[in-house]
Design a protein that fits this description.
This is Small monomeric GTPase. The protein is α+β, with helices and mostly antiparallel strands. The protein contains 2 helices and 3 strands.
């Protein structure tokens, strides 16, 4: 392999002791199930009610490829009325 090239495939190596963080953003129209899907993933619960979201954030730790990583999830609003400037 020529000098300066990186191995093909996979992610750059992770220095020992450094926890990767992935940022996820839930996007979609109002009432399509963004919060329900997020809650299922974060707390294994399915909310039956529809409580329109303004914006919620969740930080959880999960395993990806056998490695503990931090997820930073933002559950956004689907309500156009909440997105318009005053
Ligand atoms: N039957 C069924 N109902 C669902 C599903 N996903 C969500 N719901 C219901 O649909 C409604 C709206 O779900 P939410 O998760 O609050 O929707 P949302 O996209 O977060 O809505 P906003 O925050 O207003 O943008 C709730 O009453 C949920 O229980 C699903 O897969 N099946
Ligand atoms: Mg929501």
């Amino acid at each position: 392999m020529a000098s300066g090239t990186r191995p093909v495939g996979g992610y750059p190596s992770n220095p020992a002791g450094v926890t990767r963080e992935y940022k996820l953003v839930m996007l979609g129209a109002g009432g399509v199930g963004k919060s329900a899907m997020t809650m299922q993933f974060v707390s294994r619960q399915f909310p039956e009610d529809h409580d329109p979201t303004i914006e919620d954030g969740y930080k959880i730790r999960v395993r990806v490829d056998d490695e503990p990583v931090n997820l930073d999830i933002v559950d956004t609003t689907g309500q156009m009325s909440l997105q318009e400037p005053y």
